Amino acid sequence: MEPVFFFIIFAIIITVLLSAVFFSKKAIIKRKLKKSELRKIADFKDGELARIVGTVEFVDAPLLSPLSNRECAYYYVHVEQKVASGKSSKWKTIIEEEISNKFLIKEETSYAFINDKRIKSYIVQDESYSTGFFSDATENFENYLNSKGYKSEGSWGFNKTLRYKEGILEQGEKVAVFGKGEWKDAASLNLPEKYGRILAITSSTEDAIYLSDDPDTTEKNPAKISSLEKPNTNTRRGRYRK
């Protein structure tokens, strides 16, 4: 074949791969958060759109993540099965689940609360496992699969080839959130009155809420932090394992 043909095929493959990376859910969310204006919670004005960075604080009894059994306010689980496709094989998603509890985001003495279900999130998957011919599913994973109508074994009793990941938001973990802010009384948000005034983060007409615990999105560069000349007076609270 002509060298030009090989060059065209190579260019197409590279373009497809780069597009898949650039337009992946992870890339889109990280890019949105990193490019958005960073604002201190205490400096937020009603109706503004910006990014905040703070730590997770539980206000309800914590969730237990299904695979690692860790206390958390939010968990993400992704399960894939290796399936035959002609002479090759591919990974097929069989379960993808995100579950959130009520939690606050704390920065110094100020608090924010996500008050919207329209959320785009990327949670770092820090627990990864796999099953295969010589590797059985853990008890937690088997129970989780059963609850979703799946099993780790096939009809002949052999282990399916599965890989599964889990990411969580723990107490005290740093997160970045982008959205529209509005100051409200804690009681109006069905939160304990001791928190006083809280910044409720909601989606806007143009954008959903963006949330991530990826360190690339939670870095604070003082030179880029937007701060008003006068503080807001609306608030008194300023790896795979087998």
Helical residue percent band: 10-25%
Task: Label the overall shape.
Answer: globular
Work out the strand percent.
35-45%
The SS-based structural class is alpha+beta
Structure, described:
With 242 residues, the chain is α+β, with helices and mostly antiparallel strands. Helix content is 18%, strand content 39%. The longest helix has 20 residues, at 3-22.
Please provide a brief summary of the model.
This protein is of the alpha+beta class. It is 18% helix and 39% strand.
Explain the layout of strands and helices.
Layout: H1 3-22, H2 25-35, E1 38-39, E2 49-58, E3 63-64, E4 71-72, E5 74-85, E6 88-100, E7 103-107, E8 110-114, E9 119-122, E10 127-131, H3 139-147, E11 162-169, E12 174-185, E13 197-202, E14 209-212, H4 215-218, E15 225-226, E16 240-241
Give me some keywords for this one.
242 residues; alpha+beta; 5-stranded mixed barrel; 4 helices; 16 strands; globular; disordered C terminus
